Inverse folding.
């Protein structure tokens, strides 16, 4: 097989095209959706601790705001490019539609390795990003959040910079903030909790029982670890976790609390004593019911898709399956719940945070959890109806359902005839 083209923008555009064709939509819909409404490119000068100046490239893409203000994270990573940010903003538009939140799609990024910056340099970079993009952000314009390489502390600096310029307490301009400073309870756990809910609902539809279901994961960061926690709470058994260079495996099950305890004293899980360390080749061939990628993009390419030995894949990470990998999984009858459905718990609780900020009225943890559960199950059922009606995959259904919704709103707004 030829080497795949893995430009994320081309992949995102292909997904839109396929869904528009499946729905037999007018070609103008594809034209409207294939590129973001705007991409702002900035240069951010940062005074480094040694007195020198570094200039970092930054981006903010607003793909579509038919349903509401833009929403999407800010990524600090050395591989950030304009095309990647554009693609991620497209996926955010569809994720917002699937999640049923009143947001359009947006994404931002800075080409930087944050691990190479000191805390003070990181703070200056975060503040510089906001100063350059101030006019394009706002709680009713475009609302960023954390993504790879950014976190609640960085959101804290960013919203502080934003409010210094605006002179107003518009905390709803950023989500994923620290709880003490306008963040929502339940946001940190939200994506992993949502992944576990989607896995549970799909398992039911496949006629399986959570108590008899085995899981493997890739990654044990925010999404991976909380997915493991909630899968375990719901009765499932996590037996293996792929790390960067190896995997850990215990057919009797890996205990979430115990792994977190181990991580507190040891930097990684590869030396976790209650599991066998196995090579990644062996990991991919493990015979389990569900695999949850929760780390990186393009993890399941054609080669992995041919050998993976599971019934169901729930995409916790963004874009973990390549287009060729996806085709092979479909041919092999492996069910895949796509990222825009599976990991939409993060954007749902970000929406809750925004609502709480606008009303300056904060909810209890139980309220957040209960509302997220209802929103996720509704999102799942909406997509399941399309899967059944059109006999398509979950991914095809998720894109078809979101594009239909967008098309209706754009028509009502007079953007298309
Ligand atoms: P994170 O940085 O907290 O965790 C990622 C983990 O993956 C880290 O522990 C890292 O060591 C590990 N990792 C990196 N490369 C790996 C590899 N090749 N094999 C195995 N493990 C590897 O990030 P996160 O927030 O958990 O995000 C993970 C994925 O989920 C990303 O694709 C992200 O875009 C997506 N996502 C995150 C959220 C959220 O709320 N955090 C929401 C939606 C989607």
């Amino acid at each position: 097989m030829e080497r795949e083209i893995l430009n994320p923008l081309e992949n995102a555009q292909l997904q839109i095209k396929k869904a528009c064709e499946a729905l037999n939509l007018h070609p103008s819909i594809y034209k409207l959706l294939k590129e973001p409404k705007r991409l702002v490119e900035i240069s951010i000068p940062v005074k480094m601790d040694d007195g020198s100046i570094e200039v970092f490239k930054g981006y903010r893409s607003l793909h579509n705001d038919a349903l509401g203000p833009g929403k999407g994270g800010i990524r600090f990573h050395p591989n950030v490019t304009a095309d990647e940010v554009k693609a991620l903003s497209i996926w955010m538009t569809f994720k917002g539609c699937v999640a049923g939140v009143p947001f359009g799609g947006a994404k931002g990024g800075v080409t930087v390795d944050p691990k190479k910056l000191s805390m003070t340099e990181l703070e200056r970079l975060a503040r510089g990003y906001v100063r350059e993009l101030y006019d394009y952000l706002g709680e009713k314009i475009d609302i960023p959040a954390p993504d790879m390489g950014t976190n609640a502390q960085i959101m804290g600096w960013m919203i502080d910079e934003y409010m210094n310029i605006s002179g107003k307490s518009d905390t709803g301009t950023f989500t994923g903030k620290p709880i003490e400073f306008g963040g929502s309870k339940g946001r940190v756990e939200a994506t992993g909790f949502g992944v576990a809910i989607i896995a549970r609902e799909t398992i039911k539809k496949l006629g399986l029982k959570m108590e008899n279901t085995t899981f493997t994961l890739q990654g044990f960061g925010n999404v991976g670890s909380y997915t493991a926690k909630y899968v375990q709470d719901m009765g499932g058994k996590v037996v293996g976790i792929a790390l960067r260079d190896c995997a850990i495996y215990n057919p009797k099950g890996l205990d979430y609390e115990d792994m977190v305890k181990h991580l507190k004293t040891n930097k990684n899980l590869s030396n976790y004593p209650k599991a066998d360390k196995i090579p990644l080749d062996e990991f991919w061939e493990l015979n389990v019911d569900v695999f949850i990628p929760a780390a990186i993009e393009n993890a399941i390419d054609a080669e992995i898709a041919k050998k993976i030995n599971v019934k169901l894949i729930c995409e916790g990470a963004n874009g973990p399956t390549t287009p060729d990998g996806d085709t092979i999984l479909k041919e092999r009858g492996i069910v895949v719940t796509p990222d825009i459905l599976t990991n939409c718990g993060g954007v749902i609780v970000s929406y809750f945070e925004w609502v709480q900020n606008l009303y300056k009225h904060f909810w209890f943890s139980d309220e957040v959890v209960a509302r997220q559960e209802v929103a996720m199950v509704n999102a799942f059922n909406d997509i399941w109806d399309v899967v059944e009606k059109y006999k398509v995959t979950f991914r095809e259904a998720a894109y078809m359902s979101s594009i239909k919704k967008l098309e209706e709103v754009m028509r009502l707004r007079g953007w298309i005839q």
In short: The longest helix spans residues 365-390. The chain has 15 helices and twelve strands.
